[in-house]
Amino acid sequence: MYEKIYLALTLLILTISHATAQNAPSDKIVGTWLSEEKDVKIEIYKSGDKYFRKLIWGKTMYEADGKTSKKDVKNKNEKLRSRNLKDLIMLKDFEYNDGVWDGGEIYDTYSGKTYSCTMKLEKGKLNIRGYIGISLLGRTALGKS
Q: Residue 94 belongs to a domain with what CATH number?
């Protein structure tokens, strides 16, 4: 009898802590985002305590047949050029620190280059800033959920 009560209480605590964790400020970026130009859709997800972004749709990510994913042909690493653009991890290893997701990198499929990056939510928009060296010398892209 006590075992059943203990099990029920444990499940209740786990359910509450899981629901609370998903409502944490750090998880506000988790989900699907559409670029302002509406030509790219990405998914941001959490793995462990880090955040990642993958490309799930883009107007120019398919071959002429509309079904075959284009490849990562501009990648500096020749071994990675056969990767599909669909579901390609483009942002990786971000950690949440006081309203900013930083410490990660962004991969640019157009140039094949990887940059330092920060992300910040501002008025419901996701501000993604890739840069070289210091963030003052970078580019910002905004996405809408």
A: 2.40.128.520
Tally of domains in the chain: 1
**Letter string b/e over residues 130-140, b meaning 16 or more CB atoms within 10 A of that residue's CB:** bbeeeeeebee
- C-alpha distances out from residue 41 to 44, 48, 71, Å: 10, 23, 17
* Tokens 């629901």, residue located: 19
Nearest-angstrom CA–CA distance, 69 and 117: 26
- What digits encode the pLDDT tens for the residues 16-51? 333 434 568 899 999 999 988 888 899 999 999 999
Q: Report how many helices (DSSP H) and strands (DSSP E) the chain contains, helices first.
A: 1, 8
Name the pTM for this structure: 0.76
Q: Which residue range forms the structural domain that includes residue 81?
A: 27-144
Q: What share of the chain is helix, strand, coil (3-state, %, to 5)?
A: 20, 45, 35
d(C-alpha 119, C-alpha 142), whole Å: 10
Does residue 18 fall inside a structural domain? no
Q: What angle do CA 74, 79, 85 make, to 5 degrees?
A: 50
